[in-house]
Amino acid sequence: MRQKIRKGILTLSALLFPLFFLFFSPFIIVVAASRGIVSASAITFTVLLLCSMVGSRLFCGWLCPAGSIQDQVSNSNSKLWNSKAKNISKYVFWAVWLSFILFLWMRHLPLEINLLYLCGINLHILTVYFIVATSIYLFALLTGKRGMCHSLCWMAPFMVIGEKVADFLHLPRFRLEADSAACISCGQCNKKCPMSLDVSKMIKNNCVDSAECIYCLECADVCPKSAIQCGIKGKSKRHTSIR
């Protein structure tokens, strides 16, 4: 039942993506910054960072419209797409993109907050939306399961940083916990993981705390022995982050 609810929410998120594109656009935030404006997307990314200090990457697994698009594409290409090299590329792109935005803001002080900047339906916005949505679809189709999440996502680094800050400050946040004694190595968790994580190996190591985990809870729900639990928890000694 939980996965039906999650997938229903993701489907609705994808359907509403055109209406809320303004709040997630990596392009509009740059255009706004070039005019000294803090746009709605800038506020959204800040909120995601702050919320991830408690909710980790639940947004990615439960609400992200780009994630929903990729999950649909995985029916056509279920190739595993997860490695350190592939994962690090999004941080490189994100660092360059964010540095450019900060540079533009610094050049145009004092800043103006305009949450409705470029709000509306016009050919220009529709073109940008079409390019972004198509790029997400094609990249996942060419690479594999949630390829864009691993390699290109401009939102994931904000949430990963939020998780790291919470851990550094010893704040409890949403986590998974594994019971290796209960695991029967059936491999169902690996097959269900949309992020291509080796969940079975992580369970055996009593550590299911990964920067790439989107907390969709597919692994917890498919496990016949309930070897994975979830909740708001502090970081224990065995919670060594795995990429």
What is the element layout, followed by pairings?
Layout: H1 2-24, H2 28-33, E1 37-38, H3 40-55, H4 58-62, H5 65-73, H6 84-107, E2 112-113, H7 123-143, H8 147-151, H9 156-168, E3 173-178, H10 188-192, H11 199-204, H12 218-222, E4 228-233
Parallel strand pairs: 1-2
Antiparallel strand pairs: 3-4
Helix pairs in contact: 1-5, 3-9, 5-7
Unreliable runs: 239-243
C-alpha Rg, in Å? 19 Å
Morphology: globular
What would you call the structural class?
mainly alpha
Percent helix? 55-70%
Strand order of the largest sheet: 1-2
- Largest pleated sheet: 2 strands, parallel
Distance between the termini: 29 Å
Average per-residue pLDDT, rounded, comes to: 93
Tally of discrete structural domains: 2
Query: What is the overall number of helices?
Result: 12
Strand content: 5-15%
Please count the beta strands (DSSP E, at least 2 residues each): 4
H/E series: HHEHHHHEHHHEHHHE
Protein name: 4Fe-4S binding protein
Keywords: 4Fe-4S, Electron transport, Iron, Iron-sulfur, Membrane, Metal-binding, Transmembrane, Transmembrane helix, Transport
GO molecular function, one term: metal ion binding
Domain 4Fe-4S ferredoxin-type: 174-205, 208-233
